[in-house]
Request: fold
Amino acid sequence: MMPPTATIEDIKAHQQRVEKDKITPDNLPPCPRSSVDSIFFKIHAYRERRFLIIIEMLIKAAYCSLVRFKCPGCNKTFTDYPDFAIPHKHYTQPTITAFCASYVESENMTYQQAVMVDNSAPGYPQSDSTEAPTLAPTTIHRWITTLGRFTQTCRTALILLLQQNPVSSICRDLARLIIPQRKYKTNHRKKQLVGCRQLVIIEAFFQAAFKTSIFTKLATRCAFS
Ligand SMILES: [Zn+2]
Reply:
């Protein structure tokens, strides 16, 4: 099994959309400061961004531009993220969600085991090993913190799922969810683990119901909160 990842083609496709001026601000939420609707946002800057993708168990850097928009009401800036990106993360969304899911959905897994795919962890090529040689267990720990904070996205996805199927078993699945006590020492961490596991469940239902990911547009609309 190969770890899920955005591909070099995904990243090139986004770069082409940027270069052809296809990135629009309308999917962004309104400005939280001045309430200006995002359709009025103007292009502010293009920023090159490094992503880490996994090719045959090797971690490789790939680059593309992200578009920053500016609110004409108050000059606050907003970044447009393609669906393979999560703000402030270099690894891509499919990688982050897959490694987090395998950790939160298992009974006994440690973070050390969570980085392993078929007895090895994705690694950096010897030639540019300025970073850690392999995907680090602490990275998975941080990713869970991030995914555990998508409260608004999960809440909105749940509303859409229940509108589409009022008798969906999702509420039962969410209510039944348990995090083994050995996985946390504080209540704060427990909440992050629960939030992350809820996101994993909601994402699976969302994919089945709408044939798309909550990261495609919904997370952007919810300002990645
Ligand atoms: Zn504004």
